[in-house]
Write a sequence for this structure.
């Protein structure tokens, strides 16, 4: 890893999983060096090496240090490294470290760079489960982010952690709608209601209907689309109840 040739450093990292089986602490130290490499390709390889090692270990043996190194890579300057870190963490939760990793990822939601906050939202959405109130509250806070891409990522993430009938989330989004001062923010919140609270049925319809009369075209369009989401969710729910009744 000390070679001036990036190809040599890449080759060294490919030996990481075997090295970790013989001396895990030393291998992790080597991976940490790889994560600081000036070459983005090498840093990505270091992330993938850590992920490969975690995949080979049992949940009890998986290293918290390795997981935290992956979490740190979400803040990498290279987009390919950040993407690899998020994908690796999505696998790590299957290895039984959801609480610890989620808490570490959540801290990145306050990062000064918008692209890091976006990747943190993506990672947290993959780590969360339906009914995960902690993640839902974190995503709601991201709806106030100054970066529109972060806000859009949060809107996309909310349905993944919302309950089927999440009245708290609907009330929170409605509160924000009443406080909204711009058409862009209002349309984003309306879309969030349609995606995350579609199964709240008539309660969601009641929130959305007034926005069909909004002065802004983008808000009216968002309200119409969100109402379609609610209608589709209601039809699916009705079909599900009917199928259970027949069976």
């Amino acid at each position: 890893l000390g070679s001036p040739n990036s190809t040599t450093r890449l080759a060294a990292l490919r030996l990481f999983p075997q090295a970790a089986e013989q001396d895990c602490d030393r291998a992790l130290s080597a991976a940490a060096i790889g994560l600081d490499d000036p070459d983005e390709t090498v840093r990505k390889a270091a992330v993938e090496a850590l992920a490969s090692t975690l995949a080979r270990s049992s949940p009890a043996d998986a290293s918290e240090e390795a997981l935290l190194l992956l979490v740190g890579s979400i803040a990498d300057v290279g987009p390919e490294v950040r993407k690899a870190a998020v994908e690796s963490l999505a696998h790590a939760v299957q290895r039984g470290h959801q609480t610890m990793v989620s808490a570490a990822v959540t801290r990145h939601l306050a990062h000064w760079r918008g692209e890091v906050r976006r990747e943190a939202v993506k990672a947290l959405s993959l780590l969360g489960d339906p009914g995960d109130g902690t993640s839902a509250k974190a995503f709601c806070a991201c709806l106030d982010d100054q970066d529109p891409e972060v806000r859009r990522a949060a809107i996309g993430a909310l349905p993944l952690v919302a309950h089927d009938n999440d009245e708290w989330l609907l009330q929170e989004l409605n509160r924000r709608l009443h406080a909204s001062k711009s058409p862009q923010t209002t349309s984003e919140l309306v879309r969030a209601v349609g995606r995350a609270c579609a199964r709240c049925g008539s309660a969601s319809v009641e929130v959305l209907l007034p926005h069909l009369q909004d002065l802004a075209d983008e808000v009216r369009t968002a309200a119409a689309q969100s109402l379609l989401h609610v209608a589709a969710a209601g039809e699916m729910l009705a079909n599900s109840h009917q199928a259970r009744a027949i069976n």
